[in-house]
Structure formats: structure tokens, C-alpha cells
């Protein structure tokens, strides 16, 4: 029998090799290493007991058998209605997904054609760019500042002739920078999308992880516009292992997105949808998410405090108001690849700033440091290890540790 080699499809063969964010080969996690790179929630801040109750009610209820059948492609009507009520949108526009990444893929495949132009956050959530690889589009980076994506700059570029089909942004506690799009910019963005005829893909997984005292914009402009496709997930509040999220689709697209979904995976697990529906109906859920936000806030304070005490003036970092990450810029004319490798030798890893550049080599010297899953002890120790690597490379001392080593 002759043996013929398998060749991948042109799509698979043409996909760029993963590099940077998401490339596990770059991350070294020896036993005892501290991982400041991840995006997991802390398991002790997840509502495990509410899960147990909901699973028991679902599996012991009369409707359990029916949940083992195929379920409708857009999701269970009752769950769609519950989510629609929370989001303030029409239930017909809600489609249940298998998590945020699935929602992003559906959004991209629904609105973009090869060769189209899309404007994206810069810095950007890098795995969105990996979804764009499926289509092959022109990516135009747009700066994210303290109030979110720069709509003044966007307006200027649109006036100068830029014609995107879509714009991608993470509006709340952005990954990686942590900033939130102001209500003013949200309205400006919607007005530009409607005037120039593009779709805003608003990916909002961190919205519910607000720290005490932080009020998240209500997103009235996004909710009211037929030029916004909102992507969301329960991964950060109920855990990514659940694989459940939703998209809110412009009315004109709902039917077609459902057809597309029918040609891919068809539906989301009925059992998991029923479990989530029970949890959303449980009065204890929202308080538990609020309490988790307070837990993440404490961890964020430990991380930023450690950064300032170890690096002193050599670090710029804003205090996160929500979400899972601190976005820090380290000073120093050093090779940041070497810093990353040395830090990993010393037992800490993180996500390098360059990996979030929407194009080119921007954000050298930045690091996305995740506090969500790491204990307070390990946050302090992880930053101490990073600072040791940085001091070795810069030859500089800084902050409390350096002062104590100098005996002052
Ligand atoms: C901005 C952003 N979008 C989407 C996702 C993916 O969500 P999921 O894990 O539900 O696929 C993440 C996860 O980290 C994220 O940070």
C-alpha cells in the first residue's frame, strides 16, 4: 500500500505560527514558579456552592431528560430572556455561545470578508488578532488612552478616508491596559459607526469585575445601536471551564448569525445553559460577584504596592479599578527579552508588553501582570523575583529591597 502524506487545507497551512501571547512554548513554569501571566479567576472567588445547588436542581428536576436533546441554535429561550433582561436588550438579539472566543469567531465570520479593514485597540487582546487570521484582513491599530479607544483620532482618520468594516474594542477594564471607555467616547464611537457604516465589536468579559467604589458606564449607547455586536462570557465570573457566553447581535444580522452557528457547532450544552439560568435566578449570585470584585481589588493593591516598593520611580502603573490585570511600564535601557528569560530563571513569568501590540514592536518595557489567581504572598514574591532580574540587568537598585541591601 502506498502512503500519501496529508496536506492541511490552505487555511490551516496559511495560519501564522503562534508567537508571543498564547504560545505556551515561551512560558517556563518550573515547580515553585509564580505565574503572573494567566487569565483565570481565583477558584476560591467563584460561586462553587451555587453551582452545586444549580446542578442538583437541574439534574433532579423533571426537565432533565429533555436537556439531553439537541437544543435550539440561538440557545434556550429562558436563558436568552434572563440575559436580555440583565443587559437591557431584546431577547431575540441574544445568542448563547460556548464562551467569549467562540463569540469573537462568530462576530468576525459574520461581519468581515477577506481584505476588509478593521480598527482595533492598541494595545490589543492578542487572541482577537488570531481570530482575524482566519479571514485575512487589514488591521488598523488605534491608541487606547486613559478613557479608552481614541475616538478623536478615529474621527480624524475617517475624515481622511479610512473606511473600516468593523472596530474591535474591550470597553471595560481593557485587556491588557485595564482602562474603561468613557460614556462620552462610547457615544462618539456609536455615532461614528452609524455615520460611516461599520460595526463595533465590543468584547466585555471584565465588566462584572468592578472593584468597590467603581461604577461601570451603563453602555446605553452600545445597547441602543444596531451598529454594535456585543460579545460576552461568564468565564471571568463563573469560570472559563464552564465555556458559556453570549453575543448581542444587531437585529439585521440575527438570522444569518444563527445560520452560521448551525453550520459550525450547532448549539451550546443544554445542561450548562439550564445550570447558568438557575444561577442567574439565585439572589446570592450578584452579591458573590461583588464580593469577588472586592477580593480582586485586594490582590491588585498588593501587586501594585509591591511594584512601587520594589521599582520605585522606575515603574509606571495605574491602580486597576476592575478586571484581572495591572499594565506596568518598566524603565531601563535593557533587552526586555533577556529580562523575561532571567525572570523565568528566577521563578516568575508574565505576559510581555510587545505581545499586545496591534502591529509592530510597540510596548517594549511593558508587562501585563495578572493578580487574579495568585495568592497575596506569591504576588509579593513574584514581583520581588521580577525586580531582582531587572536589577541584575540594569545594574540599578531601587525601592525598599535595594535600600535595605545597601544597609540604609
Ligand atoms: C478580552 C477577552 N476577550 C475574550 C476572552 C475569551 O473568553 P473565553 O475564555 O470565554 O473564551 C478573554 C479571556 O481571557 C478576554 O480577556
In short:
The chain is an alpha/beta fold and 408 residues long. Helix content is 40%, strand content 14%. The chain is built from 15 helices and 14 strands.
Can you walk me through this structure?
By secondary structure, the chain is of the alpha/beta class. The chain has 2 domains: 132 residues, Aspartate Aminotransferase, domain 1 (Alpha-Beta Complex), CATH 3.90.1150; 236 residues, Aspartate Aminotransferase, domain 2, CATH 3.40.640. The chain is 40% helix and 14% strand. It contains 15 helices and 14 strands. Strands 2-9-8-7-6-3-4-5 form an 8-stranded mixed β-sheet, with helices on both faces. A 4-stranded antiparallel β-sheet has the order 10-11-14-13, with helices on one face. A two-stranded parallel sheet has the order 1-12. Strand 10 and strand 11 form a beta hairpin. Helix 2 packs across helix 11, helix 4 crosses helix 11 and helix 5 crosses helix 6. The longest helix is centred in the last third of the chain and has 27 residues. It is globular, with a radius of gyration of 22 Å. The termini are far apart. Pyridoxal-5'-phosphate binds next to helix 5.
What distinguishing features does this structure have?
alpha/beta; 15 helices; eight-stranded mixed β-sheet; binds pyridoxal-5'-phosphate; Aspartate Aminotransferase, domain 2; four-stranded antiparallel β-sheet; 2 domains; disordered C terminus; 408 residues; 2-aminoadipate transaminase
Provide the CATH architecture of the largest domain.
Answer: 3-Layer(aba) Sandwich
Bound molecules: pyridoxal-5'-phosphate
Q: Residue share in helices?
A: 40-55%
Number of strands: 14
> What would the principal axes of the Cα set say about the shape?
globular
What ranges have pLDDT less than 50 throughout 5 or more consecutive residues?
Answer: 399-408
Q: How are helices and strands ordered from N to C? A: HEHHHEHEHEEHEHEHEEHHHEEHEEEHH
Total of domains:
2
Q: How large is the count of helical segments?
A: 15
Strand pairing plus helix content: what structural class?
alpha/beta
Output the radius of gyration.
22 Å
CATH-defined fold name of the largest domain: Aspartate Aminotransferase, domain 2
Oligomer: single chain
CATH class of the largest domain: Alpha Beta
Strand content bin: 5-15%
Mean pLDDT: 95
Order of strands in the sheet with the most strands?
2-9-8-7-6-3-4-5
Largest sheet, in brief, is: 8 strands, mixed
